[in-house]
Design goal:
The protein is an alpha/beta fold and 330 residues long. The termini are far apart. An eight-stranded mixed beta sheet has the order 1-4-3-2-5-6-8-7, sandwiched between helices. Helix 6 (165-176) links the parallel strand 3 and strand 4. The longest helix is centred in the C-terminal third of the chain and has 18 residues, at 308-325. Helix content is 36%, strand content 12%.
């Protein structure tokens, strides 16, 4: 699709100051390189394609892809009838069975969910999905756990500092649910890598969660999902937000007071992306001055509350679990 390169680069560079899905999780180099003339979404340090070196740490358990995503949602009466059947007493999911039913949990256990980005939003989302009984998780990240992650990430402890996030997430999931099949990919996802990666899972993923910060990669994911019909929910900005009651699901065209969503909305129109379901906050971001003398790419005017990214992640997981289990809308 033809477009003005200078205009696109200016838009993406501006997004570096807006805060991403996990607040301020992306490396500073990502924001700086996003403004480069031709390297859309690629940091300078990532010269070689990560796709060629992506490493999957997959457990050997067999998995049958979930086939009931298009089934008609059950009525409350049907759920009430199914609640008479209890098969999970004495198991970690016995409390879920009470509200989601045995048949609903069967769907969850047969489902595949992919989470791209394992920062504040993504790591907490994966934790909730694992506790919810999802049978197959595909998790993707290239970063390591850092000290500044401890205030918001489910995998960030002094004991995990310096470890690869995808490995810590894999271990966490297996500690919660040893029967979950986990594919943990060590990969920094650039815009050009999106289609080759997602092509491998087309028709096999029941939900894709985008929890990354890179605007160019988020747009590539949105384009792919809109074109192929892969189910997608994209997390918008959590930086400088303090009120979780302002979080809601909407199409990106209906968002407001979210600087990241504003860029996504504009770029989706330019690219002809017809729909993009997002989780965003309608709260006006808290305005803070940047540190004097700091470079723009350092994003010193962006902060993240300890509770906001986890709530983003939990809400995303809740939406996915309820939809797969076919729980009626409240």
């Amino acid at each position: 699709m033809a477009e003005n390169v200078n205009s696109k680069n200016a838009t993406i560079a501006a997004a570096a100051d807006l805060g991403g899905a996990a607040g301020a999780d992306a490396p500073a180099a990502d924001a700086a390189a996003a403004a480069a003339a031709s390297a859309v979404g690629a940091p300078a340090a990532e010269a070689s394609s990560p796709a060629s070196s992506a490493r999957a740490d997959a457990s050997p358990r067999a998995f049958a892809p979930f086939a009931g995503a298009a089934a008609v949602a059950r009525t409350r009466e049907e759920i009430a009838e199914s609640l008479r059947v209890r098969t999970r007493r004495g198991t970690p999911t016995e409390k879920l069975e009470v509200i989601m039913t045995s048949a609903g949990l069967d769907r969850v256990e047969a489902a595949t969910v992919m989470v791209i980005g394992l920062g504040g939003v993504g790591s907490n989302c994966v934790e909730a999905l694992a506790r919810g009984g999802v049978g197959h998780l595909i998790v993707i990240d290239h970063d390591i756990v850092g000290l500044s992650n401890i205030n918001r990430q489910a995998i960030a402890f002094h004991s995990t500092l310096g470890r690869k996030k995808h490995e810590v997430v894999r271990d966490m999931v297996h500690d919660i649910n040893p029967d979950c099949q986990v594919e943990a990919l060590d990969m920094f996802l650039r815009a050009d890598d999106v289609a080759p990666l997602l092509d491998r899972y087309l028709g096999k993923v029941d939900m894709l969660i985008d929890a990354i910060d890179s605007v160019s990669a988020k747009l590539a994911i949105a384009e792919y999902a809109d074109r192929t019909g892969m189910p997608l929910i994209s997390s918008m900005g959590g930086a400088n937000k303090l009120h979780p009651e302002c979080l809601c699901f909407a199409d990106v065209s209906e968002t407001r007071n979210d600087p990241l969503a504003r860029v996504m909305r504009k770029e989706c129109r330019k690219r002809g992306i017809r729909r993009l379901r997002v989780l965003y906050s309608c709260e006006e971001p808290v305005k803070r001055p940047a540190v004097e003398g700091a470079e723009r790419r350092e994003r010193t005017n962006l902060g993240t509350a300890s509770f906001m990214p986890p709530i983003f992640g939990q809400m995303l997981a809740g939406k996915v679990l309820c939809e797969i289990a076919q729980v009626p809308e409240a």
